[in-house]
């Protein structure tokens, strides 16, 4: 099973109202990042674990609902005013580059109810899947399941921390690569590798 070397850096990106917006860059490997240097068809970084969440319509969703086709995941929260809007733009770009690829945004903030996610999608014209869970559920999934940093401290004034990585998952639910959500070239590489998984 793939394990990251360390969570190496906290980079604050400013404040969003009473909530600090920040992210964790993950030291995914001590060597080359498999998202860039290993074809997705040859990389297997472990299976996404079982999860049970809700989508923006309040429907129950599990990891099994994503089997059968590749998908890309990003961790966000709706109160974020810095990193997350940029990641949404990258996801929009990915939608154009890989229109058949399923996109999923998972909120690490338990305050992001299905109703909040639905309004967020509608107001920003976003057409992919948004998921939320109870306290700690998605943050734990980010850390233990996707091997990405996340922290949701208690208290509305505390900074929520999450990764800016986009994660490519194959049709069998295995992680195939990590990509820089702040870099258009990396997003384009994700689209190319997703296409290779369909061949």
Topology, pairings included?
Layout: E1 6-16, E2 19-27, H1 34-37, E3 52-55, E4 60-62, E5 71-76, H2 83-97, E6 102-107, H3 114-124, E7 129-132, H4 137-145, E8 150-151, E9 160-162, E10 165-169, E11 175-180, H5 184-198
Task: Report what the structure shows.
With 199 residues, the chain is of the alpha/beta class. The protein has a single domain (36-198), classed as Glutaredoxin (3-Layer(aba) Sandwich), CATH 3.40.30.10. 27% of the residues lie in helices and 30% in strands. The chain has helices spanning 34-37, 83-97, 114-124, 137-145, 184-198, and strands at residues 6-16, 19-27, 52-55, 60-62, 71-76, 102-107, 129-132, 150-151, 160-162, 165-169, 175-180. It has a seven-stranded mixed sheet with strand order 4-3-7-6-5-10-11, sandwiched between helices. A four-stranded mixed sheet has the order 1-2-9-8. A hairpin with an 8-residue loop joins strand 8 (150-151) and strand 9. Helix 2 crosses helix 5. The chain is globular, with a radius of gyration of 15 Å.
């Amino acid at each position: 099973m793939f394990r990251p070397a360390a969570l190496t850096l906290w980079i604050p990106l400013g404040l969003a109202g009473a909530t600090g917006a920040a992210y964790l860059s993950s030291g995914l490997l001590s060597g080359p990042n498999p998202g860039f240097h290993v074809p997705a068809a040859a990389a297997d970084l472990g299976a996404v674990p079982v999860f049970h969440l809700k989508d923006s319509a309040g429907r129950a969703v599990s990891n099994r609902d994503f089997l059968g086709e590749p998908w890309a995941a990003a961790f966000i929260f709706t109160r974020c005013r810095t990193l997350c809007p940029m990641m949404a733009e990258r996801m929009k770009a990915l939608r154009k580059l890989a229109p058949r690829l399923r996109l999923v945004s998972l909120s690490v903030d338990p305050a992001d109810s299905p109703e909040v996610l639905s309004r967020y999608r509608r107001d920003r014209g976003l057409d992919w899947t948004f998921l939320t869970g109870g306290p700690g559920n998605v943050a734990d999934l980010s850390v233990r399941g996707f091997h990405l940093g996340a922290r949701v401290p208690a208290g509305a004034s505390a900074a929520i921390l999450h990764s800016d990585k986009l994660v490519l998952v194959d049709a069998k639910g295995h992680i195939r690569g990590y990509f820089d959500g702040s870099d258009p070239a990396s997003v384009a590489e994700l689209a190319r590798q997703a296409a290779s998984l369909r061949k």
